[in-house]
Amino acid sequence: MPDATPRAGPLAALLAEGPGHRFVVYGDSCSGIAGAPHERTFASVNGIVRRLEPAPEFVLFLGDEIAGLSADPDELRTQWRYWLEHEMGWLDRSAIPLWNCTSNHTTYDTMSEAVFREMLGHLPRNGPPGQEGLSYWVRRGDLLLVFVHTQWSGLGGEGRVETAWLSDVLGRHTDARHKLVIGHHPVHPVNGFSGAYQREIGPEHAGDFWDALVDNGVLAYLCSHILAFDVQVHRGVLQVCTAGAGTAHRMPEGIEYLHCVQAALDAGGLRYQVLDTEGHVRERLHWPLRLPGIERWQDLATGEQAAPFGGAPCANRIAALRFVGRAAPAGDGAPQTLMSAFQPGLLPALWIGLGGPEQLLTVIIGREPRRSPYYWHGPALAPDAVFDVRLVLHAGMGPGGVISCTGADARWSSLGAASPWGAERLHWPARWSIGQAPRGSGDQPFRGSALQASFCLVDVGSSERRAEMAAEGASS
Questions:
Q1: Contacts from 127-130 at CB under 8 Å and sequence distance 24+?
Q2: Roughly what angle, to the nearest 10 degrees, separates helices 203-215 and 164-172?
Q3: Rounded to the nearest 10 degrees, how much is the dihedral formed by the CA atoms of 53, 57, 62, 63?
Q4: In terms of CB atoms within 10 Å, which of 23, 140, 278, 315 comes out highest?
Q5: 219: DSSP letter
């Protein structure tokens, strides 16, 4: 077995502020075979988990522990033994519980489901009929963890999940301050990789599943399966996808990376840091989102103007914009500009506006000159109706960090996109234009009325999370 002994000093773990919880979540090692390539990559991720100081209080593994996908139950048992006794043998599971999730590599038919139950006999047997030891829940003080089986053979296999039991469990634990649901398959597509059942939960289950999370105050759904780290929010509930525990050869080079997620949960919400195999923090988030009161936002004049801030990409930046007005009447589908950030003579690096006859909220971020930009699409505005839209570009959330809410619904939701990155790579230009595109680019004016715009900037890297209302030129 490769030597996974930590070779560097401790890594500072995020701590709960007051009563709370501290844990690690990761998934998709696809290992369990001595000498196979994934054994070494998985060991490199475990080496980071072992360096955390203080150690996690518990560990969540989101599935695909072993290569699996064998018709031979004895082969599955051999892989599970190697994974549990050798690759995870460093973890004192009597002191730090390890809770596992079913997945497409480990529970793909009734035989493999039976082996999963057998080899992970310590998992609770409190799931719905037929899913004992596959779906289950754990109560840890004020924290409820619910594990769902997203490929149950009793429903037809991969991408299918039972939701009535989930709703019932969540409803019976209304006193839990924190609720996390854990499953293997995402509900919402990750990085544009979409495909019902094989890549995300099937459409006949997805709506009821997410409704159960929203209606019962779940903070986050933790999943893996897609080889990436990704976070999105939908109607106020996070979807966190972490599948970086070993299968490096299938990760998009230069975009995704091997990783684990260390998190803290307390009265202030969820904080996490995504650690690569060098121990570097690559991404981080504090949720729920906190922005200064609207009265502290800076008003923006209609037309072209010097940007209130600009400069190089910054991973700690949250840029928030608010647009209030009356939408145009129905009938014309030409683009309408709410805000454009540009360098003279170049296409806008950032365009925010309305597209199509349905007046769909649209965000376009340009990667670089002469390269196709990426698009995000959000809610439609009702024709000739008053609107109040808040839009956030959260550089710490990657492609899921283009989020919006409306006056009618204050819950944040990520705009739909097929991009592997978001505002974290945006170079903010020195010129902005409100209500129209830059001169010479077709103008694309807003055709409604009474448009008002404002913005605020939050530096999440500062200890005070202070609002940056600076109007003095550019800063990075």
A1: 127/165, 128/162, 128/164, 128/165, 130/154
A2: 10
A3: 100
A4: 23
A5: -
3-state secondary structure of 157: coil
Interatomic CA distance for residues 426 and 397, integer angstroms: 13
CA distance 362 to 402: 10
> Residue 140 forms beta bridges with which residues?
143
Q: What pLDDT band is residue 476 in, cutting at 50, 70 and 90?
A: very low
Instruction: Yes or no: say if 322 and 361 are a contact pair by the CB < 8 Å rule.
Output: no
What's the token pair of residue 250? 């299938």
Neighbours of 385 (CB within 10 A): 11
pLDDT at 472: 27
Contact of 136 with 105, CB cutoff 8 Å: no
Q: Are 22 and 14 in contact (CB under 8 A)?
A: yes
- What the chain holds in terms of domains, given with CATH numbers, is 11-287 (3.60.21.10), 294-468 (2.60.120.200)
CB contact at 8 A, 399 and 417: yes
* Structural Rg of the chain based on CA atoms: 23
| 34 contacts: CB under 8 Å, gap ≥ 6 | 1, 82, 86
CB 433 within 8 A of CB 339: yes
What is the DSSP pairing of strand 303-306 with strand 431-434? antiparallel
459 confidence band (pLDDT: 50, 70, 90): confident
* 278 pLDDT higher than 50: yes
* Run of H or E including 51: helix 37-51
The token pair that represents 248 in the structure block: 């490096």
Residue with tokens 């997620």: 261
Q: Identity (one letter) of the amino acid at 195? A: G
**Dihedral (CA of 421, 426, 432, 438) sign:** negative
Q: What is the mean pLDDT of residues 381-405?
A: 96
Q: Which of 31, 36, 35, 67 is nearest to 46 (CA)?
A: 31
Q: What is the dihedral of CA 176, 217, 27, 86, to 10 degrees?
A: 10
- Residue 68 CA to residue 160 CA, distance in Å, equals 20
Nearest to 187 by CA among 144, 219, 141, 220: 220
In whole angstroms, what is the distance from residue 390 CA to residue 401 CA?
13
pTM over 0.90: yes
* pLDDT tens digit sequence for 394-422: 999 999 999 999 987 899 999 999 998 99
> Cβ(340)–Cβ(432) under 8 Å?
yes
Residue 126 carries which side chain, given as an amino acid letter?
N
